[in-house]
Amino acid sequence: MDFDLTWILLGFPVAFALGWLASRLDVRQLRIENRQAPKAYFKGLNFLLNEQQDQAIDAFIEAVQNDPDTSELHFALGNLFRRRGEYERAVRVHQHLLSRGDLSADDGHRAQHALALDYLKAGLLDRAEEALLKLEGTRFEAQARLALLANYERSRDWEPAALVAQKLENAGQGSFKGRLAHYLCEQANALTLAPDRAQALLKQAIATAPEAARPRIELAALQHQQGNTVLAIATLKEAVDAAPAAVALIAPRLAAFAMVGKPDPSVLELLQSVYKQTPSLDVLDAIVALEASSGDTTTSARDWYARHLAEEPSLVAAAKWIAGEKLEHEQFHPQVQRALDHAVKPLTRYRCAACGFEAKQHFWQCPGCQAWDSYPARRVEEL
Predict the structure, then answer these.
(1) What is the pTM of this model?
(2) What is the distance between the alpha carbons of residues 133 and 118, in angstroms, rounded to a whole number?
(3) Fewer CB atoms inside 10 A, N or C side of the chain?
(4) Gap between the Cα atoms of 148 and 130, Å rounded
(5) pLDDT tens digit sequence for 12-48
(6) 206-298: which CATH number, 1.10.287, 1.10.10, 1.25.40, 1.20.120?
């Protein structure tokens, strides 16, 4: 059979024309799709930059409808819902992502992390814990552990919090010894009916963070409650050496314990020595109280406050000094004293160094921002 080359020569142009036409149709369709999706995407991004979140959400929903397979659009939409407080919608978006069979392993972990954040923001702590635990061994492991730690602290689950903090410490994510000591102290505080177990936990806290003031302060309080005031004083003396920055918190307790039993001159000597190195009104008040209880009239309270004023300009010290001073117009003294006492109240508060939250009492964990050890031992006037 003879092979006719004419048909081949005629077929080449036809095949080329058909291929070119098909490619043009594909390119055109691709351009139409690409114009629709990016246009909506960039429109949403523009709204987001202009802080128009409602319009941004509408634009991203449009983009997702045009290109439902794009995971980045889903992540953007879910994060927007979370920022707006629409946690249920954010959860649905991220759950939809997790249900997709074509999602890569990394995007799956990312969606799991986003879902955990949704639950945390919504206050669903149990679901958040479950979602965060699934991130062990992923690139989100460190972030998940930190979120899990905050979750346990929020729910006051101190034992699992200690386990997570130890994992973070072992992984080189920072020093968590201070937090571990606080967790042990919190556990000891809950054991009011088991003082021996509480003491063991507090001693463990001291071994965990030897420079921390709280474990020794609380151990001394427990020893005093059990009637061993001498041992409590010794523990507080150790606290002064271990945590000199917290001496303003230790001094009032040390003076109070010293006034219970037999007079202990070494306590007064220690406080006077500390005051000379670092003048503090709390330490000074403790010295004045000890001298008054022992009957030592060598230096009066007014003299101590006058000395303090010579070293430090203090409205609080001035108010305490003038309380014992006889004024020329003594009939106006109560009004003047009342005004001074009112003026110094804000100066005697403690202020969180992290968020600025002020309180009458010292907190180991800020009730405002939940930061640990963010309250300096000194009051507002002395900062």
Answers:
(1) 0.76
(2) 15
(3) N
(4) 10
(5) 565 655 565 555 545 455 444 444 445 655 555 565 5
(6) 1.25.40
